[in-house]
Q: What sequence folds into this?
């Protein structure tokens, strides 16, 4: 609303704090409510897990956004067509693709090299959303660690090996669609 | 050296060692309680070094201590170096000194070549007992103020200012709460106050519930615990008065805080919850003064259990209620706790003068009638305070629903 529209005709509705009442004003309600809440949680079930011995199970590993993988097609080739949509969508600029002419007849390009800097990645999942051929996907693998920065830059082979490790537990989108018919 | 000096030295070593160990393990308990209340597990991994034995994290305090010792002692360039060093020493030694007159049991039977029963207190028979506790306890304000001023940091100074106002304000209800007990037992000696409650079997909390409440709230505030932890208030003041401190100096502040909490819990238990007395456990009322080894042990155990319960309540309180705003804090001190304390002292004074006569006239036990009067006083005070609602400070502009608002407003 701009200044020159004249006086407002509708009265403003004031919304105040709710009335405390006698129980609230005497602090008794707060006293018992607070104690009840803390006591309930003190003896309640704990939400955290003993991490290295016990692993957190994601309710839906397919939705989880962990380490990336590059999917393979039925013939075991990399599915990626080097269209650069994921690298363009990436807000952290952590995907680096070098495209080359495809040796296979069913597509024009394929990634000669495909690297993801897992240290720069913010695990937003936008690469997965952008991919037109469902080649890049995020797995539920979350406790990633390495001894050097170089080690944390995943190349094509490593990303494909992540697929090999996780494909049975977390089937790719296209495989799931096929199963459901 | 005379046996008396040796006896005092042994007690000092025992109490200091127990206190420092207790403070260290209370830090662990506090962290684990906090974790449990927040549905976490808390530090439970540090056990025996070089093994896989965890012992529920009981090694954590030692690891914490080692970490504090080896941390760099940062002294910022802009601080007043003498005061900066003096402040943690002052607050720590003052917190330790409180325990000189606090009994940690009743008496041991004559032993170790002594003819008399050995009182379980470092300085037995101090007639000014409670005055000494108050005098030394209020030195904590100096530690906080000096530290905050010497740090030359605005967050520290804010913390120090809040702390100064808070600690000085709550000394008054603390003193008033104590005054009722001193009037009732006619002595400032802590052992005498316990003995008084043990002989009658009626704890002061029953006869003076108003004083108990005032003293407990004020003691909580003096210890700087939530919901009265405005001097630190991490969310507002970074770390409050110890923002600039690190290493051993920080540890002295933190240990001093836990010592204040222990002292507050012990004082509440001794003054109002009967000290080492528990019905049917700590000896009959005839042989209350001279004890066997067994009763001496039971009394220490009962006292420690009560203190532990009080400390557990403090830790639970920390997560149960939100921190007060500063004006609410001051309103509670001056408009609620101070009048309640005055009423309590007045009720106790009148009772000491006329109580016996009234009890005889009504043919009821003195203490029972006094408990009824105390409960009535508490109820009336609480009701009146609720009706007057002195802690609400509504500074919002006056509403006017009738007049249409213009855009210029």
A:
């Amino acid at each position: 609303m701009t200044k020159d529209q004249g006086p407002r005709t509708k009265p403003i509705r004031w919304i105040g704090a709710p009335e405390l009442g006698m129980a609230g004003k005497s602090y008794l309600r707060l006293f018992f409510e607070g104690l009840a809440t803390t006591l309930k949680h003190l003896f309640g079930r704990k939400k955290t897990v003993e991490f290295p011995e016990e692993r957190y199970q994601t309710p839906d590993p397919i939705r989880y956004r962990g380490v990336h993988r590059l999917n393979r097609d039925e013939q075991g080739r990399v599915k990626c067509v080097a269209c650069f949509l994921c690298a363009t969508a990436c807000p952290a600029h952590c995907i680096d693709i070098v495209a080359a002419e495809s040796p296979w007849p069913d597509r024009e390009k394929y990634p000669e090299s495909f690297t993801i800097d897992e240290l720069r990645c913010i695990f937003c999942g936008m690469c997965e959303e952008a991919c037109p051929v469902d080649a890049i996907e995020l797995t539920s693998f979350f406790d990633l660690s390495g001894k050097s920065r170089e080690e944390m830059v995943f190349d094509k082979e490593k990303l494909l090996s992540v697929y090999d490790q996780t494909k049975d537990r977390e089937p790719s989108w296209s495989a799931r669609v096929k199963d459901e018919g | 050296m005379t046996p008396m000096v040796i006896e005092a030295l042994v007690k000092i070593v025992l109490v200091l060692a127990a206190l420092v160990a207790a403070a260290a393990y209370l830090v662990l308990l506090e962290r684990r309680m906090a974790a449990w209340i927040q549905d976490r597990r808390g530090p439970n991994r540090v056990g025996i070094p070089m093994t896989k034995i965890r012992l529920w994290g009981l090694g954590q305090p030692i690891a914490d201590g080692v970490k504090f010792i080896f941390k760099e002692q940062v002294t910022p360039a802009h601080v007043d170096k003498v005061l900066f060093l003096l402040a943690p020493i002052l607050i720590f030694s003052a917190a330790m000194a409180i325990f000189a007159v606090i009994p940690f049991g009743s008496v041991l039977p004559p032993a170790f070549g002594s003819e008399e029963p050995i009182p379980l207190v470092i300085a037995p028979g101090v007639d000014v007992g409670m005055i000494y506790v108050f005098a030394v306890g209020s030195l904590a304000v100096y530690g906080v103020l000096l530290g905050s001023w010497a740090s030359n940091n605005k967050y520290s100074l804010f913390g120090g200012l809040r702390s100064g106002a808070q600690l000085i304000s709550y000394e008054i209800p603390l003193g008033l709460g104590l005054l009722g007990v001193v009037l009732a037992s006619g002595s400032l000696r802590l052992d005498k106050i316990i003995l008084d409650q043990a002989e009658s079997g009626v704890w002061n909390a029953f006869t003076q519930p108003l004083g108990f409440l005032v003293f407990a709230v004020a003691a909580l505030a003096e210890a700087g615990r939530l919901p009265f932890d405005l001097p630190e208030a991490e969310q507002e003041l970074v770390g409050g008065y110890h923002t600039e401190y690190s290493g051993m100096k920080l540890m002295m502040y933190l240990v001093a805080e836990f010592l204040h909490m222990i002292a507050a819990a012990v004082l509440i238990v001794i003054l109002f919850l009967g000290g080492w007395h528990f019905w049917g456990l700590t000896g009959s009322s005839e042989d209350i003064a001279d004890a066997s080894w067994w009763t001496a042990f039971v009394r220490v155990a009962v006292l420690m259990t009560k203190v532990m319960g009080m400390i557990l309540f403090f830790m639970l309180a920390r997560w149960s209620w939100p921190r007060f705003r500063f004006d609410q804090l001051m309103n509670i001190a001056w408009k609620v706790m101070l009048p309640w304390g005055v009423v309590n002292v007045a009720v106790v004074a009148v009772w000491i003068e006329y109580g016996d006569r009234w009890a005889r006239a009504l043919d009821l036990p003195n203490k029972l009638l006094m408990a009824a009067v105390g409960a009535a006083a508490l109820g009336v005070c609480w009701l009146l305070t609720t009706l007057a609602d002195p802690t609400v400070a509504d500074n919002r502009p006056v509403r006017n629903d009738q007049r249409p608002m213009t855009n210029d407003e």
Notes: Residues 232 and 240 of chain B are 4 Å apart (CA to CA). The beta strands of chain B are 107-108, 118-119. The longest strand of chain B covers residues 107-108.
